[in-house]
Specification:
The structure is a homodimer. Chain A is built from six helices and three strands, in the order H-H-H-H-H-E-E-E-H. The first copy, chain A, binds a DNA duplex through helix 3.
DNA sequence: TAAAGTTGTTCGCGATTCGCGAACCTATGT
DNA sequence: ACATAGGTTCGCGAATCGCGAACAACTTTA
């Protein structure tokens, strides 16, 4: 599974095997092994690859199928900030209302 | 890192080494090696452990901490949705502007 | 209370897998 | 034609794996 995901992500980014190998400080053939399924990356390498590709290890390992996490504002348990300052519950509700009104008006 | 996390999680759940080993179909000594740091679990084992503990591989591997992740709107790394519908770049900018204006007015 | 389990730790063993450079092919550019 | 870059595969030595065994410290059972 990780082999397929790595191959897809790399092609999407149009990166070469050598480039990724350089970023992780491993041999080109080593990384090639990851993509072909001939080798399994170390846990450390998996972490670095997730960072490099801007995705999660859960995605690389196939635990989840979404490359990127999406944040649903109406149902989020995460703190949300603007300019580093956290939004209050009320502010988030205002933003949601704003978006809903905006969309409703766009329909007419 | 994974060793520490596994040990913490197992104790929190009050499970024995043997119980986890049975769930993963590996030897007790093998799992013990994971917790002591003497061995590294396979990628497959990491996935199964995340499922068993009800956590993410990102947490097990130490990519993220248990602390809640905060989403900075001005640095939108994730897609954001309201009622399941994704916000456009413009909409996000409007929300940011809205919050900034609101804060500025609150100062006066 | 003696015997039988349970738990967690560590060890050595054989087998597996790792990471590497080398070699090779194809395509592209000089 | 030659050089360069990307991608694939191979064999090698070294590192690591997963296992059962053995052990001490408790806890449970008879």
């Amino acid at each position: 599974m990780i082999a397929k995901r790595l191959s897809e992500l790399r092609k999407k980014k149009k990166w070469s095997l050598q480039y990724i190998a350089d970023q992780l400080n491993i041999a080109k053939s080593t990384y090639a092994g990851y993509e072909s399924g001939y080798r399994q990356p170390s846990l450390e390498a998996v972490k670095e690859l997730a960072t490099l590709f801007g995705t999660s290890t859960d995605y690389l390992l196939g635990v989840v199928d979404d490359e990127q996490q999406t944040i649903e504002l109406t149902n989020t348990s995460f703190p949300i900030t603007v300019d580093g300052e956290r939004l209050t519950e009320d502010e988030i509700h205002q933003l949601i209302a704003f978006i809903r009104v905006k969309r409703e008006m766009a329909k007419k």
